[in-house]
Specification:
The chain is α/β, with parallel strands linked by helices. The chain folds into two domains: 177 residues, 3-Layer(aba) Sandwich (Rossmann fold); 122 residues, Orthogonal Bundle (N-(1-d-carboxylethyl)-l-norvaline Dehydrogenase, domain 2). Helix content is 50%, strand content 17%. An eight-stranded mixed beta sheet has the order 5-2-1-6-7-8-11-12, sandwiched between helices. Strands 4-3-10-9 form a four-stranded mixed beta sheet, with helices on one face. It is globular.
Length: 314
C-alpha cells in the first residue's frame, strides 16, 4: 500500500488503549471503537495517558461505539484488542463491514486467535501481534504499563502481506511502541504464551501476583508443571524451545511479575475468562497429539468451574 493506512482499534481496555495511543500519535485520524457506555465522551474529553514503563499522552479525535459505524470509514487495517471471549461476536459484526483487501490484526492474549479469524476471512486478511508489555487499566483512558520487554512482534499468515506489516510496524514504533515485523509470528506467540498460559490460571485461583506464585514453593510447583507441559506441546507443534528457556522465563517473572494476571480480575468481577484460548488451547492441542497435560487439565477445569460458580451467584 503506497497510501497512508486507515487504522481502527477495536477494544479500548488496557492493551487496546496503549496500541491506540501509539497509532494516534502518528495519525490523529486513527479510529477507536468500544461499546462501553460513556467511554467515547471521556476519551474525547481527556485523551489517553499511558504511564509507567511507557509514556504516551495523546488526544482522541475519532471514536465509535459500534463496529457497524466503521462501514463508511472503510479502514484498511482493523486491530482487535478485545478479550478473547468477545472475539466471536466481534467477528460477526466485522462480517457486515468487511471488504476484500481489509486486514485484521489479532493482538489478543492466547493461542490460535489468528486461525479463528482466518477461518472467517481467509489467511490473506490476517495478521497477529505478540505483545511484550503488561498493562493495567487505572481508569478509562488512564493506563499503567507495568513492564515492557521490547519489542512487540507482528507477522502475517501470507508472505505477500509483509509490506503492509512493515508499514504498521513502523507506525507503532514511531509512536513509541517499539515493534518488529517477523516472518514466523506463531513462534513468537508460543514464546510468550508458554508463560502466560502457565501463570494465568494459578494467579486467578490464588489471587497472588505472578512473582508471589513463583516464589512460593507450593504454587511454583504447579506453575512449573504447567510450564513443562506447555513446552512439550509447543515443541510437538514445531515451535521448539528448551528447558533452559522456560527456566529463564520463570526466574525472570519471579523478579518482575509484581502484577496479578488479568484472569484474576475476570474471576473477581464475575466475568468470563480467556481460559479457552489459554489453558484450554494447550489441552486441545495436547489431546490431538496424545501428550499428557494433567496440570493444565486440572487448572483449566478449575477455572471453568469458577466461571460457572461466579456467574451463577446472585
Amino acid at each position: 500500500m503506497g497510501k497512508s493506512l486507515k487504522i481502527s482499534v477495536i477494544g479500548l481496555g488496557a492493551t487496546g488503549s496503549v496500541i491506540a495511543a501509539a497509532l494516534i500519535k502518528q495519525d490523529p485520524e486513527t479510529v477507536c471503537v468500544d461499546p462501553k457506555p460513556g467511554l467515547g465522551d471521556l476519551l474525547i474529553k481527556n485523551g489517553i495517558a499511558v504511564s509507567g514503563a511507557l509514556e504516551i499522552k495523546t488526544p482522541v479525535k475519532r471514536f465509535y461505539p459500534n463496529i457497524m459505524d466503521l462501514r463508511d470509514n472503510k479502514p484498511d487495517v482493523i486491530i482487535i484488542s478485545t478479550k478473547t471471549y468477545h472475539l466471536e461476536n466481534v467477528l460477526k459484526d466485522l462480517k457486515e463491514i468487511f471488504v476484500p483487501g481489509m486486514k485484521i490484526i489479532s493482538s489478543h492474549n492466547g493461542l490460535g486467535t489468528e486461525d479463528v479469524i482466518a477461518e472467517e476471512f481467509g489467511s490473506d486478511a490476517v495478521f497477529r501481534m505478540s505483545l511484550s508489555f503488561g498493562a493495567s487499566l487505572i481508569s478509562p483512558g488512564r493506563i499503567n504499563v507495568n513492564f515492557f520487554d521490547k519489542p512487540n512482534y507482528i507477522g502475517c499468515l501470507e508472505r505477500d502481506n509483509k509490506g503492509t506489516g512493515e508499514k504498521i510496524t513502523g507506525l507503532l514504533t514511531a509512536g513509541g511502541l517499539d515493534t518488529m515485523f517477523v516472518d514466523d509470528i506463531k513462534f513468537y506467540v508460543w514464546r510468550k504464551m508458554i508463560g502466560k498460559c502457565s501463570n494465568a490460571p494459578v494467579c486467578a485461583i490464588t489471587g497472588m501476583t505472578i512473582k508471589d506464585i513463583l516464589n512460593n514453593p507450593n504454587t511454583r510447583e504447579i506453575a512449573t508443571g504447567c510450564y513443562r507441559e506447555a513446552l512439550a506441546v509447543s515443541n510437538a507443534m514445531g515451535y521448539v524451545f528448551d528447558e533452559n528457556y522456560t527456566n529463564d522465563i520463570i526466574e525472570h517473572m519471579a523478579e518482575i511479575g509484581t502484577h496479578r494476571d488479568s484472569m484474576h480480575y475476570d474471576i473477581e468481577n464475575k466475568l468470563p475468562t480467556e481460559i479457552d484460548f489459554l489453558g484450554g488451547k494447550i489441552v486441545e492441542y495436547a489431546h490431538a497429539r496424545g501428550i499428557p497435560v494433567p496440570f493444565f487439565e486440572i487448572m483449566t477445569n478449575l477455572i471453568r468451574g469458577m466461571e460457572s460458580s461466579k456467574n451463577n451467584q446472585d
